[in-house]
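Fold it.
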Amino acid sequence: MRGCDWAVAIGCLGAGAGLVGFWGLRFAQGKVALGEYVMRLHLAAEYVTAAALIAGGIATLIKPRARLSEVLVGLGLGLVVYASIQSGAFYPEEREIRILLWFTLVFAFAVLGLRLATL
């Protein structure tokens, strides 16, 4: 496995675990409005994104050139890009989270670039 493959795998695993951790903290702080239908859909999308990233990271560790790992990494990173752009509207008063979303967007494009470099 090349260094880029390791970076992609670790990046995907870290991003997926980070999403789960972020929402775990939000739940612990009582900052998740589960009564709102839109937020429940948003949470479902966030956990699907985390699952795709973790699966992509594991698949890349097992066999980086397999079609399944390519699809899972692409899916997970695509979902992260979407979530990074779309999620800012949920946090109009939380500047730190909006900044974090921009860093996440840049990170996703960097990992995607590494993935494309290894194809």
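The CA atoms of residues 22 and 28 lie 10 Å apart.
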